[in-house]
Amino acid sequence: MLWIPIFILTLLVTTEGIVKSWDHSPISGSSPLKTKRRDNHIVRYQRDINNGRNKIAERAIQGRGVESLPIDTYQTQIVENNHKYYSSRVLGPTELQGHDLLVDLLQEEPKKATVLAILSKAHKQALRVKLSFDFPFYGHPLKHITIATGGFIFMGDVLHSMLTATQYVAPLMANFNPKYSNESTIRYKDNGTCVVVQWDKVRLHERENAGNFTFLAALFKDGHIVFGYKEIPLQVQSISPEQHPVKSGLSDAFVVVDPFLNDSESQRRYIYEYHRVQVDLDKIKSQTVVEFTPLPTCLQYTTCDQCLTFTSSLNCSWCHVLQRCSSGIDRYRQDWITYGCEKEAQSTSCEDYIDFYTAADSTIQTSSPEMDSTPNPFMDTTTEDDTKTKHQGDGE
């Protein structure tokens, strides 16, 4: 497994009116000129995000239209919200009657479910698993996921010591410690069209008397994501985030190489979070489901005509060099910059490319949303904790 120095920054992720600012802290060893050039580079990223983001009013599940619902009446309401990349809805017990969304992995073909013994007896650990199908996450086809004891799935391909920060699918991210009970298990099942990960009877670290938590995340081949909560013994808002983040939702980011570093520092990379869907913790209760439906993205279009005729707040553009439709804000961001796609994006007609490019264009090497640093074993362990910096387990 490839491990590299990582700096995680946030690209103005707006949730309930809160704007995350950029981290402009200086990097040791950089000259004032490098720092200034880097800051200018970051400002350009920020401007790119704003140009696309200001044209849509994103609402998280805890946004307007949800606050007016009394907590005690949530079970008779279906709360729906539209986001930039996903639409979501929350279903209570009444709506789940006869509904197939809440899948109990223990009851449905238990012999076919894989118990992750390493995680079931560990604390703050994660395990990398290969999928039998490509799962589209924010439009990116993923072949691997990393399951963590802390109630979430890390969706990134570059492992680092801050897995809880971004690039996650989190039904309930918290400081769970399966070591407390022999009943606690973390297991998954991949049937070729859906992967279900279930945290069963897990307990909170240093709060084991609070009771057992049982919940799951289901990833469907078509991009749908479902969170199912079977047993939530207390109000999630009462869980302390002091030792571990407490949150629920989706997040994605892209990785770029710092262009202003010397060759000896070429492995230093930055992770920029560009989008987040945050579930209101008030809505996480027993016998409740949160469903995320993927919305069309630029990446799904493979021709210039399709790309430029796609009407969306994502502001899709066609890059002829890469033969790719993109907003420039996705996991292929590094390619978008390297091959000058930002300049090409100024074209508004596919005919504009005919005068500048011929059929003799050579094939170019591009990056993949999943790097070629796939571990040799089928599974690979790593740490999930924000506070630990040393890799743990037998992985590379």
TrEMBL record:
It is found in: Membrane. It is a single-pass type I membrane protein. Residues 365-396 are annotated as: Disordered. One of its GO terms (cellular component) is membrane. InterPro entries: Plexin_repeat, PLXDC. Residues 385-396 have a biased composition (Basic and acidic residues). Keywords: Glycoprotein, Membrane, Signal, Transmembrane, Transmembrane helix. Gene3D superfamilies: ligand-binding face of the semaphorins, domain 2 (3.30.1680.10). Its main location: membrane. It holds the Pfam family PSI. The keyword Membrane applies. Residues 1-17 form the signal peptide. Residues 365-376 have a biased composition (Polar residues). Belongs to the plexin family. This is Plexin domain-containing protein 1. It comes from Engystomops pustulosus (Tungara frog).
